[in-house]
Amino acid sequence: MTKGRGIFVFLECTGNRIEEVSLELLAKACELQKLSQEPLYGVAIGKEGKELETQLLSLPVEKLWWYRYDGACLPALWEEAVLACIEEVLPSVLLLGGTPIGSGFASRVAVAMKTGVTADCTMLELDEGGNLIQTRPAFGGNIMASILTEKTRPQIATVRQGIFPVLTKKHQQAEMVKRRLSEQDSGVRLLKREEKSLDGGITKQEILVVAGRGVKREDDLEQLRELAHLLGGELASSRALVEKGWMPQSTQIGLSGNVVSPQVILTLGVSGTIQFMTGMKNAKKIIAVNTDKEAPIFSIAHFPIVGDLYTIVPNLLTLLKERE
Ligand SMILES: Cc1cc2nc3c(=O)[nH]c(=O)nc-3n(C[C@H](O)[C@H](O)[C@H](O)COP(=O)(O)OP(=O)(O)OC[C@H]3O[C@@H](n4cnc5c(N)ncnc54)[C@H](O)[C@@H]3O)c2cc1C
């Protein structure tokens, strides 16, 4: 086995900011680094700009590669760029966000390095031998599988946003290696570009009201949406209502939806399957309303309410409107 050393984080950048998932990964990487005592590295690919450079320089990494571009930069170029610095330091671990970019990229780097990837991890730890214990839900979320990449390096893992707390502390200046990427080198000509909205949908909300299969009619969702807005948040849902076509997929919380960690989450008629709870168990305060006192959601709820949502929601609405 090629022996790797160091923890490498792929820092995804959009516009002039570092994506939150990358800062969460970096916080986790700092924890792992304390145990392994190995160097921490980062690589970022982003648009030329002072604001992004300042953010990158303050990160707690020993060395950072910054690939800059003007205009369009195509992912076709990224693989080569990241592989170049990975081959330079031969890290033991490579962490990426479980975003469309990070996930696609992780598998391509893994093929090039002839190593494995564990996608969508929910826990990362180190064993005594320095192996990364990559834990993720398996078989539809019915079991948690801990996976080791024992024979090859780097050990590559992707993690979705919201699983780990975001990096908060300030740090020393990182050593920065600046390199440039150019569209001309990609062999692809970009004909049209459309900017996607950066509002982050339900993942950016501090307050979420979640509708589950306990909601009997599509029209009833209006009351729940009104409640969410009066509380200053948004309406999300379990997969049950997405499958019925009542709520868009972008509002789904869980294993095959979004991972959220709001300040407050209020679930209404959600049973709390493992697939659902994987996506919201890090919420700061969980309030659950369910008619069944044995519902699994109560095992993680800070405020379990055994009751009928059709009584509780109208009462809450009246109360909130009186206070307006
Ligand atoms: C591979 C895979 C991935 C999946 N990914 C996801 C995912 O990302 N997100 C997700 O949500 N699911 C996911 N699922 C589906 C998941 O297993 C469940 O089917 C789903 O979470 C159930 O949604 P629910 O809790 O709304 O419905 P149910 O499990 O049917 O629960 C409805 C609850 O409402 C309660 N209730 C009924 N009436 C009332 C009332 N009047 N007032 C209060 N409570 C009431 C009931 O007691 C019950 O507990 C996935 C499944 C698989 C196999």
TrEMBL record:
Short name of any one Pfam family annotated for the protein: ETF_alpha
Annotated Electron transfer flavoprotein alpha/beta-subunit N-terminal domain residues: 7-190
Family note: Belongs to the ETF alpha-subunit/FixB family.
Coiled coil: none
Protein name: Electron transfer flavoprotein subunit alpha/FixB family protein
Gene3D superfamilies: HUPs, TPP-binding domain
